[in-house]
Write a structure and sequence with these properties.
The chain is mainly α. It is built from 16 helices and no strands. It is globular.
């Protein structure tokens, strides 16, 4: 009889899986971060347009990514049961669902300017955001299908290609950005449109690399053979699990998107500062996203093995690891906020000091929600691992839209706290979500998984 896996062994397994996933998430985020840094050095107006355009892209991307995230626990459980056919079925239908959703998003990107105008954004910022989305928006099809393949490989614990492929894509994005935003090396100076072209090229190349790897190195599941054949049962499973995941994530991301819209009402400088502070906070969040994905895979495999004790121990370990990482980011945000925000700004920009002042205040607010933001995403990862997605969707809608958005608006505009008030509202919404989701997993879902 095998002995129960110790907490130390669980920690080692979580980190072995989670560290490459964290690296891959950081590298993926570096694509957006590079756009923000270089456009911030190019022009504050272009930065504000990018903040708005990237927000619209990300909201729709994260909704559609629910189908890819549904693939991960299903593949992990099927792998534990050694069911290769089920692995192939859910991955293919995940690709189908993602492809269809990506194509459905294109009209939003192509007609972004009037949509943003109706949201109360300044005309010049809306025009720049529309220029970005008119090019970068086409990349959503490649980004979503690539996300499915990353989920498939992660569930099979083949995270090396996910990490190194994304690192190469981030480096390529930086090179193309440097050439096309500023007009270096004989390239045309394209500003925000140059950043959009770089993002699109990188999404296409990364998807190609993942497909090549699967065909050459891991061909055993024959993912692309007779790809056109429908599988209604597997497609239904992906949609049933993936749609609530997408809506749950959308509820959280749209909370931050709503904060971007509210910051836009305050003007270009607060919006630019918000974009910088949000990028820094999001970079720290990539740590917890990687651990959350590792939690999904480990929980899915525990369910496939019918290992109740392993599920509980693994959950406690990943919560502890994420908590340690969150405390470290709080220290950074409170001790060196000016240095962090200053990295995104040209030293000679006349608006630098104004953006810096707002950004430092926002970093203090960001420090407040690090622990609760980490807790809610870890809880979601565990819940996905046991394929409990419908009730978490309702919890997210309650926490972010019934609590978070009204509190953000009330503190920011009614109480006159401006940007800091908007961010304090984010912290309240995240805290409510963290508490309810953790309770859901440990008190309800873990017992129902077997």
């Amino acid at each position: 009889m095998s002995h129960p896996v110790t907490y130390r062994e669980h920690a080692r397994s979580v980190l072995a899986l989670g560290v490459p996933l964290i690296g891959g998430n950081v590298a993926q985020f570096a694509i957006t971060l590079t756009d923000t840094v270089m456009l911030g050095w190019y022009d504050v107006g272009a930065l504000a347009g990018n903040v708005l355009g990237a927000m619209v892209f990300f909201v729709l991307f994260i909704f559609g990514a629910g189908f890819a995230l549904a693939v991960m626990p299903a593949v992990a459980a099927a792998e534990a049961e050694e069911d290769a056919r089920q692995v192939r079925r859910v991955t293919r239908m995940g690709l189908w669902a993602s492809l269809a959703f990506g194509l459905a998003c294109l009209p939003v990107f192509l007609f972004a300017e009037p949509i943003l105008g109706l949201m109360g954004q300044e005309p010049d910022v809306a025009e720049l955001a529309a220029q970005y989305l008119g090019i970068a928006g086409w990349g959503i099809v490649f980004a979503l299908t690539g996300m499915v393949l990353k989920s498939y490989l992660s569930a099979r614990e083949r995270t090396g290609i996910v990490l190194w492929g994304t690192v190469a894509a981030a480096l390529a994005n930086a090179v193309v950005n440097y050439a096309l935003i500023f007009g270096n090396w004989g390239a045309p100076e394209m500003g925000i449109r140059g950043a959009a072209i770089a993002s699109l090229v990188v999404q296409v190349v990364l998807l190609g690399a993942l497909v090549f790897y699967i065909l050459i190195v891991t061909p055993e599941h024959h993912l692309f053979r007779r790809f056109w054949r429908p599988d209604p049962e597997a497609l239904g499973q992906v949609i049933r699990v993936g749609l609530p995941i997408g809506l749950t994530t959308l509820a959280e991301v749209s909370l931050f998107a709503a904060s971007s819209v509210m910051m836009g009402w305050l003007g270009k400088v607060p919006l630019a500062a918000h974009g910088i502070a949000l990028n820094i906070a999001s970079l720290a969040f990539m740590l917890h996203m990687g651990l959350s994905s590792a939690a999904t895979v480990r929980a899915g495999r525990a369910v496939g093995r019918r290992d109740r004790d392993g599920l509980r121990r693994g959950a406690l370990v990943v919560v502890a690891l994420s908590g340690v990482a969150a405390v470290m980011t709080v220290v950074l945000f409170l001790t060196i906020p000016g240095w962090l925000v200053g990295l995104f700004l040209d030293p000679d920009d006349p608006q630098r000091e104004a953006v810096l002042a707002v950004g430092i205040a926002l970093m203090a607010a960001a420090a407040l929600f690090q622990l609760v933001d980490a807790a809610q995403v870890i809880a979601l990862g565990l819940l996905r691992g046991v394929q409990d997605t419908k009730v978490p969707m309702l919890i997210a809608a309650l926490a972010y839209w019934v609590v978070g958005v009204p509190v953000s608006y009330g503190l920011g505009f009614v109480a006159g706290m401006n940007g800091v008030g908007v961010w304090l509202g984010l912290a309240v919404g995240l805290a409510v979500a963290a508490g309810l989701l953790m309770w859901r997993f440990f008190a309800v879902s873990m017992a129902r998984a077997f």
